[in-house]
């Protein structure tokens, strides 16, 4: 049986507490901001690596973003992935979900054969969770989102997925190939394998694709391919705790708490 | 239960790996068992941590008792008594490294490593918040040509709200003594002690190298730490930085200021104080004198010793990476320590380590003790600053 | 530029809401969206349509009218009894091609997000996910969606004026459900669709609800510390009233008052609820790590100097035992008045 081919979509996000908005350009200021791999994507990679622990598999990381993604995402190679494809081109920039999923889908097409596409549940910056279904749609594949466990029967070409739902879970079965999004914090990503470190950070060849390298239609990528327009952008008030003291008799205080709970939960 | 009765399966590859990782350090061990007897786990468990059988495993090439390998608090008590001077703590860390290689680590420890990787601290806290505690203190960026010392606060004192008060106390003491000092601010590198003690030696080398590069670049000289943990790694586990580099624990530095009459403690504190030596000061680095110099200078304070003190101190249970693992109730060394402090009728149990404070205060809470308080020596010295020095503007 | 399947000029002045069914009834968020949709459309003179999918669900239409739907587009089919994103996308697409709405809103629930993500691509339109507010620019016929990013640090206003339908998803609880008007009438549009078994592409082979504890998913976390003296029963009572889970600091766990899997903090579970209520907790750092990502933190403790108050939005200096019975009383009364 051929090795299981897994593509893991990953991205780099700025550490959320450091992000600032440039009020004039309405763009996010990213200079000097510390970055990290989108934490849910680490869970997706760990899920792929767990599969590879038990069966022959090859893991390819796919990402779309600026060149600085490369050194950061090499961490994924050090954790155990075999290949890393980075779609990096100014033309790809400014993409919303539609353009992003299109571009990634075309990248996956260029990678070639695959059995599984794993994504993090959502990204820490956008937090929309719309990439996995969008990707599945472009590729005309089934999808299961919010997976916490995954097993694959290569012979039957079936993936068995545990999916979290309100107050419990479901087990889904889907045919391969399929797209799966992985629930944030559903596993503890393994640390860098130091036997791979030198290779991963210095020797491994990262495949970098510009728009010319991939079969993409210009109108579908980047800002041009994005129906969504940012009409305004501002920083939320700093999330300091309010530290507001509620005073009164226990009964009065209880009413105050209930009132606030109502505000928060309804 | 004795391990020797069980058939031993020896894996040659593992044996070689083990010898290499532990650098043959287990070789001189001749199974006398003094280590097992010395280990504080014997005080809290009916079935003590059999250091001896783990050492035997390390010699023969099998990983004995994987759970037990994570129990070691790196307190070093066993090493004091070992007749062959085997570096037992190092061997345990080597064994942990093997378990990292086999990905057989307790849940949660990988997260600690990743936090050091992405956040520059093992506490999963935002790096941009590292100096949050010092708001309004107007700390200066370190300049080796200008400052007497580099004040290194470390991750715990920077983020743990309890330990932050120790950091603030030290700042106030330094100012009261008119010491010129600088800090690295947000750029202060994590020392990597958690990584070292959890046994990920290759990653520790990376962390240490990164910090070393920073220290070299700023031409560091005297570096004063809040935590004995940072002090110990800088002193004993770091690569060579430069000729002038000298890590000092703050107790030694403050004691020096007192002895040199730069710092005068004149505020009264009429309390019975007993001092809990942190393992990494009292035992591992044989620094028992300086903390007591400070305490004995405090006017009206009475310093009393517990039976287990100095190099014979009782571990609080928080070292060796145990802060990142759960210790079941009834097995916390700090409970015994609090009892010991109560037995000598102390009002204050003083210490000089943020992790000790955390463990001791936990025990005070769970034991329902009300008459004993835990304070860092820096806080005690701060309380004993005379009114004049106390009113020195700390803010702005 | 990508063109959507139909142009804004072809779109009807209609706002559609996907009516998600949960345990035989509408999901709360669907009612909230109908209510919000009613408010938005009412001012602009648009039609509000509920899209109702399922197997034998026509009875629910009346409820949709009572919350503001002018029309309910019903797709009743034996294969739609279980939510399958491929099957649901397949038939929704057919309805949208006929109805050509200007705006299509869905709940940002797991299923709503799945469906929205696929449909937006199939329709080649923009999708604004997890909106925190919606505004309808009546003159332009454009939906403006407010979204947050970076853990709430940045707020953006998004629109996709050139594409149709303008799609947004909204989390449960963002909008408030209107009072139902029981006699409100509407029109039922019975859609006939093409759907075959092969269009359903994943199978649910098992489902377990109400088993196991997962504090990480709880929207409300009720935590008890040493100050509640082991009385977790009253916390459970409170939790039941607000659909919360009970968590604890280390000491009560140690003392055996509650199971270890409910320990919150550095060596326990790290949670990110909408609200964390903390009773009798002083706020040691290793506990705080477990709740620091909560949207709102409420703390009740006798000690005004307790560090927990540094991390709380609402602070109450009082014995937890005094507040708890009163709070339960108030919430119970509230609950009864809703159901009455």
Write the layout of secondary structure elements.
The complex is a heterotrimer of chains A (266), B (396) and C (340).
Chain A: E1 4-9, E2 12-14, E3 20-22, E4 27-29, E5 35-37, H1 39-54, E6 57-64, H2 69-79, E7 83-87, H3 97-111, E8 116-120, H4 131-138, E9 143-153, E10 158-165, E11 168-175, E12 178-182, H5 197-203, E13 207-209, E14 229-235, E15 244-245, H6 250-265
Parallel strand pairs in A: 1-6, 1-8, 6-7, 7-13, 8-12, 9-12
Antiparallel strand pairs in A: 2-5, 3-4, 9-10, 10-11
Chain B: H1 12-21, H2 34-38, H3 41-44, H4 51-60, H5 66-69, H6 77-81, H7 88-101, H8 109-119, E1 149-152, H9 154-159, H10 161-176, E2 181-182, H11 193-197, H12 201-217, E3 222-225, H13 228-236, E4 246-249, H14 250-259, E5 272-275, H15 279-283, H16 289-297, E6 302-304, H17 333-343, E7 348-351, H18 354-367, E8 373-376, H19 377-383, H20 387-390
Helix pairs in contact in B: 4-7, 10-19, 14-16, 17-18
Chain C: E1 12-19, E2 21-22, E3 25-26, H1 28-44, E4 47-54, H2 61-66, E5 71-76, H3 85-99, E6 101-107, H4 110-123, E7 127-137, E8 142-149, E9 154-159, E10 166-170, E11 187-190, E12 202-209, E13 220-224, H5 232-241, E14 245-248, H6 250-254, E15 275-279, H7 285-288, E16 296-301, E17 314-317, H8 320-339
Helix pairs in contact in C: 3-4, 5-8
Briefly characterize the structure.
Chain A has helices spanning about 40-55, 70-80, 95-110, 130-140, 195-205, 250-265, and strands at about 5-10, 10-15, 20, 25-30, 35, 55-65, 85, 115-120, 145-155, 160-165, 170-175, 180, 205-210, 230-235, 245. With about 270 residues, chain A is α/β, with parallel strands linked by helices. In chain A, the strands form 3 sheets. Chain A has a 9-stranded mixed beta sheet, with helices on both faces. In chain A, strands 2-5 form a two-stranded antiparallel ribbon.
């Amino acid at each position: 049986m051929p090795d299981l081919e897994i593509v893991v979509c990953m991205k780099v996000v700025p550490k959320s507490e450091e992000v600032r908005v440039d009020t004039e350009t309405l763009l996010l200021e990213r200079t000097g901001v510390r970055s990290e791999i989108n934490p849910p994507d680490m869970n997706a990679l760990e899920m792929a690596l767990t599969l590879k622990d038990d069966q022959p598999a090859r893991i390819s990381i796919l990402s779309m973003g600026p060149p600085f993604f490369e050194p950061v995402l090499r961490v994924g190679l050090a954790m155990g992935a075999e290949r890393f494809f980075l779609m990096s081109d100014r033309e790809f920039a400014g993409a919303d979900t539609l353009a992003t999923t299109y571009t990634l889908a075309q990248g996956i097409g260029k990678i070639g054969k695959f059995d599984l596409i794993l994504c993090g549940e959502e990204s820490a910056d956008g937090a929309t969770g719309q990439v996995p279904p969008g990707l599945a749609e472009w590729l005309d594949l089934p999808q299961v989102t919010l997976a916490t466990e995954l097993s694959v029967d290569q012979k039957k070409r079936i993936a068995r997925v545990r999916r979290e739902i309100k107050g419990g879970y479901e087990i889904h079965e889907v045919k391969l190939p399929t797209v799966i999004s992985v629930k944030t914090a559903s596993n503890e990503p393994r640390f860098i394998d130091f036997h791979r470190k030198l290779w991963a950070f210095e020797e491994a060849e990262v495949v970098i694709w510009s728009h010319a390298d991939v079969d993409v239609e210009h109108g579908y990528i980047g800002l041009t391919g994005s129906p969504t327009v940012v009409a305004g952008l501002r920083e939320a008030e700093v999330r300091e705790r309010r530290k507001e003291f509620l005073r009164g008799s226990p009964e009065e205080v209880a009413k105050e708490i209930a009132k606030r709970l109502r505000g928060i939960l309804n | 239960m004795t391990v020797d009765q069980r058939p031993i399966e020896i894996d040659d590859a593992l044996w070689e790996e083990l010898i290499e990782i532990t650098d043959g350090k287990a070789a001189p061990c001749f199974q006398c068992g003094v280590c097992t007897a010395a280990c504080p786990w014997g005080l809290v468990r009916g079935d003590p941590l059999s250091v001896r059988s783990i050492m035997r495993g390390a010699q023969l090439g099998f990983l004995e008792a994987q759970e037990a390998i994570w129990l070691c608090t790196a307190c070093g008590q066993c090493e004091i008594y070992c007749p062959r001077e085997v570096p037992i703590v190092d061997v345990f860390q080597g064994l942990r490294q093997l378990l990292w290689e086999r990905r057989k680590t307790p849940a949660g420890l990988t997260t600690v490593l990743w936090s050091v990787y992405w956040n520059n601290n093992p506490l999963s806290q935002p790096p941009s918040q590292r100096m949050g505690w010092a708001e309004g203190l107007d700390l200066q960026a370190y300049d080796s040509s200008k400052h007497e010392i580099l004040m290194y606060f470390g991750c715990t004192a920077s983020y743990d709200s309890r330990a932050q008060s120790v950091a603030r106390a030290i700042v106030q003491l330094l100012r009261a003594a008119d010491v010129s000092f600088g800090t690295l601010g947000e750029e202060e590198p994590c020392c990597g002690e958690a990584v070292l003690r959890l046994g990920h030696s290759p990653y520790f080398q990376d962390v240490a190298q990164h910090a070393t590069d920073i220290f070299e670049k700023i031409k560091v000289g005297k570096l004063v730490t809040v935590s004995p943990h940072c002090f110990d790694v800088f002193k004993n586990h770091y690569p060579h930085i430069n000729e002038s580099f000298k890590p000092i624990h703050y107790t030694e530095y403050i004691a020096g200021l007192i002895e040199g009459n730069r710092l005068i403690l004149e505020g009264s504190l009429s309390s019975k104080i007993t001092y809990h030596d942190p393992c990494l000061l009292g035992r591992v680095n044989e620094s028992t004198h300086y903390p007591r110099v400070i305490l004995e200078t405090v006017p009206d304070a009475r310093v009393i010793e517990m039976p287990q003190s100095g190099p014979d101190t009782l571990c609080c249970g928080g070292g060796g990476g145990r802060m990142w693992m759960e210790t079941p109730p009834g097995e916390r060394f700090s409970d015994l320590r609090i009892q010991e402090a109560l037995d000598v009728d102390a009002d204050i149990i003083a210490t000089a380590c943020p992790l000790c404070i955390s463990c001791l205060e936990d025990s005070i809470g769970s034991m329902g003790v009300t008459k004993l308080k835990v304070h860092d020596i820096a806080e005690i010295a701060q309380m004993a600053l005379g009114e004049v020095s106390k009113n020195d503007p700390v803010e702005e | 530029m990508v063109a959507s399947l139909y142009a804004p000029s072809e779109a009807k002045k209609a706002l559609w809401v996907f009516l998600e069914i949960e345990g035989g009834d509408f999901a709360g968020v669907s009612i909230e969206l109908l209510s919000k949709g009613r408010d938005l459309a009412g001012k602009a003179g648009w039609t509000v349509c509920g899209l109702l999918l399922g197997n034998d669900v026509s009875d629910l239409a009346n409820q949709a009218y009572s919350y503001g739907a002018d029309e309910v587009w019903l797709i009743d089919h034996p294969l739609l009894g279980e939510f399958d994103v491929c099957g649901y996308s397949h038939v929704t697409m057919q309805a949208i091609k006929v109805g050509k709405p200007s705006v299509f809103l869905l709940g940002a629930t797991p299923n709503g997000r799945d469906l929205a993500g696929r449909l937006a691509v199939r329709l080649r339109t923009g999708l604004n996910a997890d909106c925190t507010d919606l505004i309808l620019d009546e003159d332009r016929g454009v939906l403006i969606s407010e979204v947050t990013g970076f853990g709430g640090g940045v707020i953006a206003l998004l629109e996709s004026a050139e594409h149709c339908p303008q799609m947004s998803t909204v989390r449960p609880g963002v909008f408030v459900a209107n009072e139902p008007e029981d006699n409100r009438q509407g029109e039922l549009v019975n859609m006939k669709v093409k759907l075959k078994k092969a269009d359903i592409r994943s199978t649910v082979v098992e489902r377990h609800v109400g088993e196991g504890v997962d504090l990480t998913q709880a929207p409300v976390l009720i935590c008890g510390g040493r100050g509640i003296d082991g009385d977790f029963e009253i916390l459970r009572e409170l939790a039941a009233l607000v659909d919360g889970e009970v968590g604890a600091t280390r000491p009560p766990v140690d003392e055996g008052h509650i199971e270890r899997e409910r320990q919150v903090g550095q060596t326990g579970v790290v949670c990110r609820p909408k609200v964390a209520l903390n009773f009798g907790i002083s706020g040691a750092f290793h506990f705080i790590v477990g709740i620091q990502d909560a949207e709102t933190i409420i703390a009740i403790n006798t000690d005004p100097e307790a560090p927990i108050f540094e991390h709380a939005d609402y602070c109450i200096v009082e014995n937890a035992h005094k507040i708890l019975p009163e709070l339960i009383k108030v919430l119970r009364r509230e609950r009864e008045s809703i159901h009455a």
